[in-house]
Specification:
The complex is a heterodimer of chains A (about 110) and B (about 130). With about 110 residues, chain A is mostly beta strands. Chain A has strands at about 10, 20-25, 35-40, 45-50, 65-70, 70-75, 85-95, 100, 105-109. In chain B, a hairpin with a 4-residue loop joins strand 7 and strand 8. The chains are: A mainly beta (about 110), B mainly beta (about 130).
Chain lengths: ~110, ~130
């Protein structure tokens, strides 16, 4: 099954805003399936940041926001902080499979 | 407090078998759909398999279909993954994952992964 496409890396200075894109197709994101976003620090358990395209679980700061349009989705991080350095993955659904994005490493300059 | 504790990771030869287990606590295990997700060295996350809350619905990635079998014992709050005919490309950290949903058997309705275990390392090498 397909892998959703994300940029390998994005970077930004402390306090800046960065966005991560997630591009799918008509059979996953474009088929009106929800997109979820996870943050993963190597050696630790991943954590959900955004579910159902744009919803934040309790405990996730409102600096994180998600959106979806057509066959793509995006995650925005505003007020970038040092602890935001991590790998970020989008995830959706396609024909009885879950599919993850290729992953984006966020670097705080 | 929700906890997922994986076990069973090991070094195994190509063609061999291994069984992973995941013990869940701090939530109603029998009401949660569960999945296995893996991360190969230097690679991204890959969904491997999912099972509905009642165990009646099982789903697999194409890369493991026919070789891996997911099961659960709701009486023991345990999720398992039987891995046969292992290949070098199966080398990865395997995460046990709890979905938010569980009311419906279809994978589409499992919902997001609301909690992940710490992972267990499987190495396939001669």
């Amino acid at each position: 099954q397909s892998v959703l496409t994300q940029p390998p890396s994005v970077s930004g200075a402390l306090g800046q805003r960065v966005t991560i894109s997630c591009t799918g197709s008509g059979s996953d994101i474009g088929a009106n399936h929800d997109v979820n976003w996870y943050r993963h620090l190597p050696g630790t358990a991943p954590r959900v940041l955004i579910y159902g395209n744009s919803n934040r679980p309790s405990g996730v700061p409102d600096r994180f926001s998600g959106s979806k349009s057509g066959t793509s989705a995006s995650l925005a991080i505003t007020g970038l902080q040092a602890e935001d350095e991590a790998d970020y993955y989008c995830q959706s659904y396609d024909s009885n499979h879950y599919v993850f994005g290729s992953g984006t490493k966020v670097t705080v300059l | 407090e929700v906890q997922l504790l994986e076990s069973g990771g090991d070094l195994v030869q190509p063609g061999g078998s291994l069984r992973l287990s995941c013990s869940g606590s701090g939530f109603t295990f029998s009401r949660s759909a569960m999945s296995w997700v893996r991360q190969a060295p230097g690679k991204g996350l890959e969904w491997v398999s999912g099972v509905s809350a009642d165990g009646g619905g099982t789903y697999y990635a194409e890369s493991v279909k026919g070789r891996f079998t997911v099961s659960r014992d709701n009486g023991k709050n345990t999720l398992s993954l039987q891995m046969n005919s292992l290949r070098a490309e199966d080398t990865a950290v395997y995460y046990c994952a709890k979905h938010l949903g569980g009311a419906l058997r279809e994978l589409l309705y499992f919902g997001e992964i609301s909690f992940w275990g710490q992972g267990t390392l499987v190495t396939v090498s001669s």
